[in-house]
Amino acid sequence: MNPQRPLKQYEWVMNDLKRQMDEGSLQPGDRLSSVVDLALQYNVGRSTIREALSALKAMGLLDIRQGGGTFVRTPPADPLPVHPGQLYADLWEGRAASLRHLLEVRRVLETGCASVAASNRSEADLAAFEEILREMENAADEQVSEQADVKFHQQIAAATHNPLLLDLMESLSNKLHENMKDMRALWFYAERSSAERLLQEHASIYEAIRTQDAKEALARMEAHITKVEQVLSEKGAGDQPL
């Protein structure tokens, strides 16, 4: 592991649980606390706990019984290296559930925001949208593009000029940042295309807001989110991890 790269939350949780196993405070046969309790203990989301547990399961250190709890396993005497693809597949399973929940929230919140923004947007809002779209178009790397993507969706909430909608969207901001990489990967997978196509998708939503077509803004945001949901469902039916 690159010591310069900060640990993701699930890696930190995974390493701490593994440390407890190595030190003997968690023994083979011990049952771990529930996902809810572990999330409270580590002050992270439940999806983060599920990712950490999935990784430990892939290492052969946990036995996760559906509906029956999670138990520490006796470490293999001569453990085989975990294939990166299998580890990613296990981690993807936990991320997929988190993504699905977030997309359900976005469908309810962002389609409504797009509709209201089309009715209430100001000239200043349009200028802000155009600046963000330029950032997306000229982004030098994927991280900058991801940040601009999140800003675009937050700007839609700002353009509603409804402080409650803006507060709700801002409360979603951290989760949106956390999952944007997976969402964008799913979008590219669905389109078999490039960032240019994703830029066009956002530009079409902006255009409906610019022309104050509330119905079309809602429909285009709905289509944007539905596309990712459809690919997520297809992957859940047995497709390979991205």
UniProtKB/TrEMBL annotation:
Pfam families: FCD, GntR. InterPro entries: GntR_C, TF_FadR/GntR_C, Tscrpt_reg_HTH_GntR, WH-like_DNA-bd_sf, WH_DNA-bd_sf. Residues 119-146 form a coiled coil. One of its GO terms (molecular function) is DNA binding. This is GntR family transcriptional regulator. Keywords: Coiled coil, DNA-binding, Transcription, Transcription regulation. Residues 7-75 form the HTH gntR-type domain. The keyword DNA-binding applies. It comes from Paenibacillus rhizosphaerae. SMART domains: FCD (SM00895), HTH_GNTR (SM00345).
